[in-house]
Structures are given as C-alpha cells and as structure tokens.
Amino acid sequence: MERIRACVAEHEERFLAELMDFLRIPSVSAVPAHARDVRHAALWLVDRFRETGAQDCRLIDTAGHPLVFAEYRVSPDLPTILCYGHYDVQPPDPLGLWHCGPFEPVRREGRIVARGASDDKGQAYLQMKAVDVLRRTHGLPCNVKFIVEGEEEVGSTALSTFLPANRELLKADVVLVSDTAMLPGNVPAITVGLRGIVALEVEVEGPSRDLHSGIYGGAVANPATMLCRMLSSLHTNDGAIAVPGYYDEVVPLSQEERAMLAQAPFDAERFMREIGVAACIGESAFTPLERTTIRPSLDINGMISGYTGPGSKTVLPSKASAKLTARLVPNQDASVAAERIARFLREHVPSGGRATVSVGHGAEPVVVSMDHPGYRAASQAMAEVWGRSPVPIRGGGSIPVVALFHSVLRVPPLLMGFGQDADAIHSPNESFGVENYLKGIETVASFMRHYVQLISQG
Amino acid sequence: MERIRACVAEHEERFLAELMDFLRIPSVSAVPAHARDVRHAALWLVDRFRETGAQDCRLIDTAGHPLVFAEYRVSPDLPTILCYGHYDVQPPDPLGLWHCGPFEPVRREGRIVARGASDDKGQAYLQMKAVDVLRRTHGLPCNVKFIVEGEEEVGSTALSTFLPANRELLKADVVLVSDTAMLPGNVPAITVGLRGIVALEVEVEGPSRDLHSGIYGGAVANPATMLCRMLSSLHTNDGAIAVPGYYDEVVPLSQEERAMLAQAPFDAERFMREIGVAACIGESAFTPLERTTIRPSLDINGMISGYTGPGSKTVLPSKASAKLTARLVPNQDASVAAERIARFLREHVPSGGRATVSVGHGAEPVVVSMDHPGYRAASQAMAEVWGRSPVPIRGGGSIPVVALFHSVLRVPPLLMGFGQDADAIHSPNESFGVENYLKGIETVASFMRHYVQLISQG
Question: Using a CB-CB distance cutoff of 8 angstroms, which residues of chain A are in contact with residue B399?
Fold first, then answer.
C-alpha cells in the first residue's frame, strides 16, 4: 500500500492535468451538435489506454456514440476485472449559473470544477490511473478490461446492444463501476442497490398555430392548461405517485433491512439546507432517505409551452410538452411502469385535447450481493485507504447498464464510487474533490490486489 | 369617391412597396435587443409624414419606445380627427413555422405575409395613405392628427403617461383606431367593444439548483409539479374561471344586446376548422363567440421549467414559471381582477413551495357608442366601399390605449379595422389582404369626408 500511495503522490500533478484535459472535451451526449466532441473524448481515451500499455485497445463504432474497449492481459490463470465508466456528460444548462465555463475546468478549494468532473469522467479516469499506478509499482495482479461508454446520460443504447453480442470479449469475474457517491464527510460506502429509470415525453396539441389570446381566449382549450391538469394528476397531495397499481410490484423491505440502510448517516436538516428547501415531501411512511432510494419516484424534468422570452406575448399556445422520468425499485419492471404512467396520462387528457405520450430509455433496478468476494475486497480496500469499513447504501440514481451486466453478462457488479453529494452532478458548477480523485486511484489499485488475494485463498 | 378610387389604383404599387419597406423593420417591442429597430421604425414613419406635408411631425422620446406625432392643419374652424396606430409588432417566434422570413415580406395569393402586416403596420399605414390620397384628390376636408406608438404589444406604457400630459396637443373630435378585424368574407364591421387585459407572471422556486432526479426524486417538491397544480386550479373542468368573485362585476347583457351581436355571422365549424381544433370549450351558458367577446377569459401564454432541449436530462428543476393574461369585460377593473388572480394563485401554492406572482401591464375594457357621428360616418364609408353597412361587433382582443382615449382625452374612439381572422396576427405567417389594405385606404379617406359632412350638417 505504501508504494501505491507514494506513486500517486509522485504523479499527482500529472494525474490531475490529464483529468483536466479530459474535462475540456464537451462530450454532451444528449445534444446532436456535440456528436464530434463525444467522439473526440472517445479517441482521447484510446490514446490514454495505448500510452499505459493496453494490449488491445479500440474505439468501437455504434449506431450512436462510440464505445471504448481496452484490455491488459496478465495471465489466463488469473481472474479478470472489468472496469466500467462513461465519458459522456450531462448538458451544462443553465449556463448562466456556472462560475466558470463548464468545459474550462478550474481547481478551487480542493475541488475540480467542470461538467463531468464527478459524473463520470473523474471516476472513470481514476480507474484507468489505478492500472497506471499498479504497473509502476507492484505490477498488475490480474487481467483488467475496460469498457467506457458515451451514452450513459441518454440511456446506454449502444452498450445495451453491444453487451449481449460480445459476451466473450467482456467476460470477467466482477465488474467494477465507479459512478456513485460516498457518504457525507467522505465516509466510505458501497452501493448495494440502484433505482431503475424510465423516461417519458408528453406533448399536448391544441390549435394548429399559436393563437391571439384575445380573439380566441375563452372558447379554445389551452394546451398548457391541459398539460398542467394531466401532470397534476400524477401525484397525491403528499407527493406519492397516484398512478393506479404503481406500487403493486414494489418489494417491501424488512425492518432489519431498513435498519441496516439507516446506518448511513443522513442529516435531513443538512440535506435540506444544501439544496435550499424548507421541507421534504413524499410518502409519509418512509424517511426522506428511503423515499429517494428504496421507494419509486416520478419527476417532471422539464416542460415548455408558448412564449417564454422577455416581456409578454399574448398567445394561446399551439402545444405544450413535458419530459418526465420515473425512478424504479425492485421488483418494478421498467416497461410495465412506463406503460402504467403512459396509460394514466392518456386517460387524463382533458376532453377536446389531443396528447401523445412516448416512452424513452429505461433501465431496471438493481440489488447487489454483499457476499461476493468483490464486495469483500472493495470493503478491505476502502478500509485501508479511508480508515473505516464502508457502509452499504442504496442509491437513488440509475446506471442503466449495471442491470445488464448482471442479467446479460452474468457478471456481478460492484458499485464502488468516490463522489460526494456536494459534487452537484447534473447541476451547474459540478465538481469533484481532489482528495476523492487521488484516494480513489489508491482504492481501486488496492481493491485489485485484495480481490486477487481473496480469490486465490478461496 | 371615384377620384379616391382612381387615385388608389394609380398609386397602388407605390403604396404596397412602402408598406413592404415598413414591414422589413423588425420593430419587436418586447425584445430589448430590438430596441434600435423599434426606433428605426419610428424614424421611418417621421420621414413618411414629412413627405406627405405634415406641418408638425416629430419623434417623441419616452422612457420606453418613442411615439410619433404628426399634424395636418387645415382650419381651426373644421373638426379634427385623431388617427391612432402602432408601429411595434409581436415577437416572431416560433421562427421555424414561418414559410418566409418574418421581416422579409412577400406577396402571395393576394396577401402580404410578414410580422405586423395586419397588426398593425398595414392598418396604421393605410390611415396615412388615406391622407396622401385626399391631398392628391379632394384635399383634406378637416384637420388630421396622428399618434403612432411603439409599445402597443407591451402595454402602451409611454403613451399612457403621455396622454394625460398632452391633452391639448392630442385634442380631437374623434379618434380613429384601425387595429381590428372585419367579419369573414370581408363583411364590414365596426367594433363597439373591446376586452380589457391584465398580464401576470408566476414563478415557483424549488431547490436552489437543478437537482439529480435520481438522488433527490421522491423527497423534494418539484416546482414544475407545483406550478402545474397552481395553474390547474385556475379553471373549472368546463373552462370557466375558478377564481372566487371573478365574475362579480361582469355586466350581464340583455337578450336584445346578445341578439344584436349575434347578427355577426359566426360559423363555429369554420372557426374550429381554421384553428384545427375538434371542439370549443368554455362557459356552457354562452356561445363560443360570446365566450371570446362579452365574457372574460384567462390563458397561459407560456410556461417553462427545467430542461427542454433535445433528448433527456434527468433533473429535478430549480424553478418553474408561467406567463398569463386575463381578458376583461365591462365592468371589470384590471387591477382588481389581477389582484384576485394573484391572491388565488398565492393561496394555491402547494405546501413547502415558494411562489412569486407579479402583475404586469393592464388595460380596461371599452364599450363604444353607436350614436356618435363618428360611428355614422364610418358606417356610410364602409357601405360605400364594401357594398354593405357594417355589423356592430364586440372584439375579444384589447387595445390598451382605447380606454384611455375615452377616459383621459374624453375623445370618443371609433374602431374601424380592416383585418381578417385569417390574418393570423400574433402567429407565424401573419398576413394582410392586399384588397383590405387598398380598400382600407379608400374607406378611411371616405370616412373623413363623411364625418365633416355630418358635423357641418349639425
């Protein structure tokens, strides 16, 4: 461990400079105008893998954004760890709230500020630097593969198609995913469950063109009003989901399971203060932490209708639309949940209105076993680097491919991430702690050594 | 009349070319970036007045966009007609739906297509060309003043301040407003009432930044959902306004009055077909035409929250906002109505939400007398040019200053307009019939002669 730590310290500035270079590439997967930037990020990664001696290392073209695959072969007799990350990032809007350019990374108060710093370029790159460090110190203790995708923020379509067709290429004993967070105060944590997700879009059509609100107002149904009525029907007054049958498949957790997860320190006052709200909402039978992890949710991500520029424009808009995502928990099924919501919305179109509800990308919820050697090795590595054993936690977010690694590749996923809530991922001024980045490198390197040890003992 | 008609025919191409020049100036009053264009339009008008021999002719600077005043003095013994129009236009969005550039006017199928063609540049300019024609034929029969404003589409603030301070300058016997429409099939009509208006904006604040909908979804109130709930509460299921007391001051019309207004041909099937809706909504006790003219309405003009770009962004938005306008009828008071709506919205903020409701520009509703010589002269002129007497109609739109001409200047307004419903004002591909423009010139010229005749007959 001392050699790993010393090596990270020695190369610290280079490791940080490389990450900054990576962050300068605006690889926003959702925006077609950024397609070339997304590809640029993939090519940049290929170069970095090549520099660190990957035997096989390639950009894989897909119908969408490319995949990057790399392999460090040590011996067919040793286990293989597959590392997963994504090099695409969320759109940076609203731009006006950034204190720096979202793709002009700066170091400030021990943090690197840029879109993707934590989600997930910083975390994907620290996995790569762990290999770099091991090669410079103990040597790689096992075979390591990497699969880095460019569509995580838009549903992982290409990788979802690639996985079942490339089981042999991606064959591994465990898949290490670094795209989650630790607990406040950098208390180490391993995510043992993720919510699934499904995205929907609703468009309400009214008149065939924007109308003068004076000439037509009072006799013509306003699509913005219709959309508001439809969206209002989705939740009860306390914030629970009002879609019939929506909770039917949700597995209730035992009191023991709830108690174990409640070990994770959660300060509701701080939670609210950090996001500037005066109260939490949601299902009263569950704690705020439970509402965001072991219970499903349904949120409007955006909506637009009519004139939204400066001043006033007295139109009765022609249409109104909204984007929604539902977060799912075991044993909800993404397509069943989406169909329930879509049907409910269609049933709630006010009379005279026409609405289209379309279902977008989805991912199933995941629960991870704590009995696997991968979990135990990760636990040892975290204890070594961060000074205490990790707390098992359930995450509220979704990593679409994690469920696929499990169900398609039959490789158990291990969710060891190094982010913090304060990273503000998906928000303006996203950042990543320099300590988290550097200690993350140490932790992944240590994990690889512990994993091989446990397997060879087992 | 023959000389007027011949003169219009002779100068037709020039009159059209001048209007096209006027339409090329993107004088969008709502958008600060167009402030210089708005001023450019005012200066352009000053030049046109000067060319046609106005004795007094000036651009009047204000706190907002400038006013243009012009005066043609004939004799202090003769009556004075004040002509009113506006040279500002609505924003052209959504740009993608225009078949030509909104400020690159084209002539197509007997119509001039451009933003402002009908509302109100075409109509303001035909008043000016009527003076041009009279000066070339019979000579001006009376004194004529013009006041042309650049803020009609944003609440007429500058003119509202200017009017009470310049009673002498604007003194007149009648004010001719050409900013309304005829009936389908170019059946002449004179507007005997207008709805008032008041604008409001609502902003709901949620968390202090856009949040990751996975990490926070389920425990944090979504401002888009809160806004939807607030806006949904504004109407009953049938489309009536649910704000308590909102209809209290509305003057009920007698059966006779309703019968007179029902003379205006109104084809509900055609009304719906032209705007592409399958049904009308609104108060069941009133006809669709009544709902848009003698009854108040309340519409969402625009709303926005969160991510509305391509693809998906899984945020729980930080805020959500909407623009609204209410249309008012006698004897509703704009500030009372606005306060009722604002209070109602504030009362309907879901618990845990914070909302700001602000009240913007307003205008009182207007009813015009049919006994005034102005109405009779206009009626004679319309019969002469269009082949039948005009139908008295109530308009659903608002012309903020019309109420002020009445209450502040004590000058009776006469609403003789030449637009058509098919003009699509405030919408993409706004247009104005070439026939309406040219016959509008003839009608205004004829009106001036009839008016002086009626006054001199006593």
Answer: none
- Name which of A188, A173, A181, A184 is nearest A120 in CA terms: A181
Mean pLDDT of chain B: 94
Question: Is there a single domain that holds both residue B123 and residue B8?
Answer: yes
Lowest-confidence pick of A270-274, A303-307, A378-382: A270-274
The 8-class DSSP code of residue B250 comes to P
Instruction: Output the six-digit token pair for B125.
Output: 């300019």
The reply to whether residue B30 touches residue A311, judged by beta carbons under 8 angstroms, is yes
Contact between A82 and A145 under an 8 Å Cβ cutoff? The reply is yes
B19 vs A397 pLDDT, higher one: B19
Beta-carbon separation of B295 and A225 below 8 A? no
Alpha-carbon gap, residue A269 to B369, rounded angstroms:
64
Which residues span the domain enclosing A34?
2-194+365-457
| pLDDT digits 0-9 by tens, A309-328 | 988 889 999 999 999 999 99
Residues of A in contact with B29 (CB under 8 A): 311
The partner residue sitting opposite A277, judged by closest CB among B220, B225, B306, is B220
Among A322, A337, A363, residue at a domain's last position: A363
pLDDT tier, A266 (very low <50, low <70, confident <90, very high otherwise): confident
Asked if the structure places residue B105 within a domain, the reply is yes
Instruction: Assess whether A229 and A174 both reside in one domain.
Output: no
Work out the minimum CA distance from A346 to partner chain B, whole angstroms: 17
pLDDT of B265 strictly over 90: no
Q: Do B311 and A428 touch (CB under 8 A)?
A: no
Mutation target for A interface from B225, B247, B270, B286: give the one with most A CBs within 10 A: B225
- Say yes or no: A14 and A129 in one domain: yes
Is residue B262 domain-resident?
Answer: no
Residue of B nearest to A228 (CA): B228
Average pLDDT estimate for A107-130: 98
Is there a single domain that holds both residue A321 and residue A389?
no
**Once rounded to an integer, what is the mean pLDDT over residues B18-45?**
97
Comparing B430 with A156, which gets the higher pLDDT? Answer: B430
Task: Find the CATH number of the domain harbouring A358.
Answer: 3.30.70.360
CA dist B314 → A63, A82, A152, A427, B307 (Å)? 23, 27, 12, 10, 8
Distance separating alpha carbons of residues A24 and A20, to the nearest angstrom: 6
Q: Is the CB of A218 less than 8 angstroms away from the CB of B314?
A: no
- Distance from C-alpha of B119 to C-alpha of A213, rounded to nearest angstrom: 14
Residues B76 and B164 in one domain: yes
Q: Which letter does DSSP use for residue A345 in this model?
A: H
- Based on the domain organization, do A219 and A356 belong to the same domain? yes
Of A93, A218, A305, the CB nearest to B300: A305
From A31, A281, A302, residue closest to B221, measured CB to CB: A281
Residues in chain A: 458
Q: Is there a contact between B155 and A312 if contact means CB atoms under 8 Å apart?
A: yes
In a domain, A235, yes or no: yes
Please tell me the distance from the alpha carbon of residue A183 to that of residue A420, in angstroms, as a whole number.
Answer: 7
φ, ψ dihedrals at A37, nearest 5°: -65, -40
Q: Which of A111-120, A154-163, B37-46 shows the lowest mean pLDDT across its residues?
A: A154-163
Predicted confidence (pLDDT) per residue in B57-66, tens digit: 999 999 999 9
Residues A114 and A14 grouped into a single domain: yes
Question: Is B325 found in the same domain as B183?
Answer: no
B432-457: per-residue pLDDT in tens? 999 999 999 999 999 999 999 999 98
Q: Does ipTM surpass 0.90 in this model?
A: no
Q: Is residue A236 part of a domain?
A: yes
For an interface test with B, the pick among A88, A179, A225 (most B C-beta atoms closer than 10 Å) comes out as A225
Nearest neighbour of A239 by CB, restricted to B197, B206, B221? B221
Which pLDDT tens digit goes with each residue over B115-164? Answer: 999 999 999 999 999 999 999 999 999 999 999 999 999 888 999 999 99
Q: Residue B165: which H helix or E strand, with range? A: helix B157-165
Which among A334, A363, A392 is the end of a domain?
A363
Number of domains observed in the structure of chain B = 2
Residue A19 to residue B199: CA distance in whole angstroms: 50
What's the CATH number where B74 sits?
3.40.630.10
CA distance B445 to chain A (A): 28
